[in-house]
Amino acid sequence: MSEIDLTAAITRLEAAMGALRGRLRERLDVSGSDLTVLQFVARAEAAERKVRVKDLASHLGLSGPAVTGTVDRLERAGHLCRVPNPDDGRSRYIELTPETERAYATAMDSTNEHLHELLSSFTERERAKYVRIIDRVIEALEFGAPSP
After folding, report:
1. Whole-angstrom Cα distance, residue 44 to residue 34?
2. pLDDT tens for each residue of 26-75
3. Alpha-carbon distance 53 to 75, whole Å?
């Protein structure tokens, strides 16, 4: 397999991910940056992890106040809700609303099912290698990006 074949595969992956994000944005009626927040929360919930503003800020590389503003906007739009942290009455977790959770699941079609089936067929060694390869591709893409 040539370097051109590998580059073409990355291009096809990028196009497929762009199409998926487009379907999600359209179905949920959100911007690209808002979709990133909703996807992070949805993936965390699927992994049975709780999300705090701090987690989103770290993931997005933004300040806490900037993320709080985004969460406030998405909460007003009916996409997110804050729920009390039972271990710390001062903090809140961020969750998808049931309506957004259903819309997100519908928009994902059978994508998650197919991805789960594919990834569960990998051995632990193959998964580790896959993650290393993806990380290297990301690094190459980010390294080649112009500085802000």
Report:
1. 16
2. 999 999 999 999 999 999 998 999 999 999 999 888 998 999 999 999 99
3. 13
Residue 94 is which amino acid?
A: I
Q: 70 is written with which tokens?
A: 């985004």
Of 82, 40, 81, the C-alpha closest to 60 is: 40
Phi/psi of residue 112, nearest 5 degrees: -60, -40
Query: How many whole angstroms separate alpha carbon 37 and alpha carbon 53?
Result: 10
**In angstroms, rounded to a whole number, what is the distance separating the alpha carbons of residues 26 and 107?**
9
Give the 3-state secondary structure of 32-98: HHHHHHHHHHHHHHHCCCCECHHHHHHHHCCCHHHHHHHHHHHHHCCCEEEEEECCEEEEEEEEECH
CA distance 124 to 27: 35
The amino acid that residue 112 corresponds to is: N
Contact 112, 120 (CB under 8 A): no
Q: Label residue 107 by pLDDT band (50, 70, 90).
A: confident
